[in-house]
Amino acid sequence: SAAALNGDMSQNAREKTINRLKKGELTILIATDVAARGIDVERVTHVINYDIPYDVDSYVHRIGRTGRAGRTGKAILFVTPREQRLFRDIEHHIKKSIKRIDPPSIKEIHEKRVVQLQEKIVVVLDQKKNELETTVTQVKKIAEQLKISPQEVAAALILLNQEAWSSSNDTFDSKPTDFSKRERKGERYKSFGGEKKRDRFRDRGKSKGRPGDRSSESSSRDKSRDKPSSGPSKDKPRDRYRSKKRT
Prior knowledge:
Number of strands: 4
Order of helices and strands: EHEEHEHHHHHHHHHH
Low-confidence stretches: 171-230, 232-237, 239-245
Structural class: mainly alpha
Mean pLDDT: 74
Oligomer: single chain
CATH class of the largest domain: Alpha Beta
Strand order of the largest sheet: 1-2
Distance between the termini: 99 Å
Helix content: 55-70%
Number of domains: 3
Strand content: 5-15%
Number of helices: 12
CATH architecture of the largest domain: 3-Layer(aba) Sandwich
């Protein structure tokens, strides 16, 4: 099971989450930097940094949640091409070279899943022998009704079992990604609602007509200048005086 830990939670809720992690009730903890300091849990084997910290000390505190007191652990850091400078700063700070690992290809993922499937089949054959006869009978019956082979039925069942993974895999691309636009737009920042919050405050400022909003002021002034007057035209005082003098 998994749980979240962040600064928006109350102190009581955070303590309960940490206690669940210590007791072994949680296997995955998705946390912000609020969990980067002062937490010592023996069961933490991996620390995965989804985004690279801009402060090298924060990185040290993050990965320090694993491999404590002589224990072993692994720290994984996702780095985009545009974050290479920050990555080198971290290596310089910790005075160690971090091993580069390329993400697996589609072919490697499929091969790994085949191996995992074989391991599961071996476990089922060993632990559920009594249920196999009934299942074999059901497979034969389905094959006779559909006029196909039992092997095809088994293959279809495997595909159904992997349907959820296949649907999520549709968005996976094994080709190198161009991160330039993603980094420029702040993909990670927007994914946590940052862009929405910023837009909300920007809109709120416009609605109140803040003095600093020069664009809105200038546009309103231009409109007022261009707007024709609906009332009677008035001559200048000097012009009225001249007209009376002539008469």
